[in-house]
Amino acid sequence: MSYSSSFWEKDSFLKPYDLAIVGAGIVGLSSALFYKQQNPSARVAVLERGFLPQGASTRNAGFACVGSIGEHLADMEKDSEENIKERIKRRYEGLELLKQTLGEEAIGYEHCGGYEFFKSRKKFEKVSAQIDRFNGWMRALINENEVYSKDELQGYPVIRNRLEGALHPGKMMEALAKKVSSVGVDIKWNSRVEDATKDGIVSIANGLEIESDKVLFAANGFVQRLLPELEINPARGFVMVTNEQENFPWKGIFHHDRGYVYFRNVGNRLLIGGARNLDKEGEQTDQFGTNGTIKLHLKEFVSGVLGCGSDWNIDYEWSGIMGFSPTKTPIVKQLDRNRFVAAGLSGMGIAIGMEVGRGVSEMLES
């Protein structure tokens, strides 16, 4: 027998919403927060498929970064200089908005500095030759001087970015969810949306239907399940955390190989992840799991490059699902009369997710 709602439910819990948001990641919750603050009397719901945010918001590495020079140079091979400058500025301003909105303590923020790590001195010399150029960019974009500088750590050449830091994604999302709930937004966990029509009928997997004047799709890496026509591809990222290490030398956040490999300390543990460029096609999936080739590569990097020796082991490992647009610029637009989308954060969710959410709120108002 199919599920049917009672009169009482329809007259209370299931009254029509002004805005229903699909996805309780950083974009979905931020959109709800800013919209509700601007429209205190509006009924707003966020519908999340899992018991926790299921994509990457609580499953990333916790990097508060604007991008390494090597990453930006690689992006310039397929995108314009102006777009990359705008992306850098957006990432910086997005991180500032995140810290101001939730507070540094609430998100576990540490201003530890970021480093681009090189195994090859030849590659280091090639990339570091661009430091003056990128320092000029930062001066013009965000009024910060001498952001990038040469350094050396544990015998390896690095480029330091003094503006970057680390945070705790779990604490960040917990703080955001609490703030969103405190302004009167309904967050519905374990509510997987199967469809949302142009007429504002949102169908949930448990048989429920709700009505909403506006619907925002903010499911990022899973958005193609609902909107297959969108040019947003899922991308799986693998992360692992070691046991505690004595005299652990790597303090800060580190990027290697154009940003594809990343590592940081979590206390005296090493967190390392990425390397999806070893099998981009295989990692273009919205299924959680582990790619053996990638895991082996990262393990060899830990032992052979970072010098953790033979006494380390993996205490935690997981994957997260990101969503990538063709140019790394998020797709934020109106689809039809009452449906909107904000997805394709392209691995920059922490940096730009809240800023995207604020922009979504403005789009919904107009």
From TrEMBL:
Keyword Coiled coil found: yes
Origin superkingdom: Bacteria
UniProt domain FAD dependent oxidoreductase: residue ranges: 18-362
One Gene Ontology CC term in the entry: cytoplasm
Keywords for this protein: Coiled coil
Ranges in a coiled coil: 78-105
InterPro entries recorded: FAD-dep_OxRdtase (IPR006076), FAD/NAD-bd_sf (IPR036188)
Database matches in PANTHER family: FAD DEPENDENT OXIDOREDUCTASE DOMAIN-CONTAINING PROTEIN, SARCOSINE DEHYDROGENASE-RELATED
Name of protein: FAD-dependent oxidoreductase
Phylogenetic lineage: Bacteria, Pseudomonadati, Balneolota, Balneolia, Balneolales
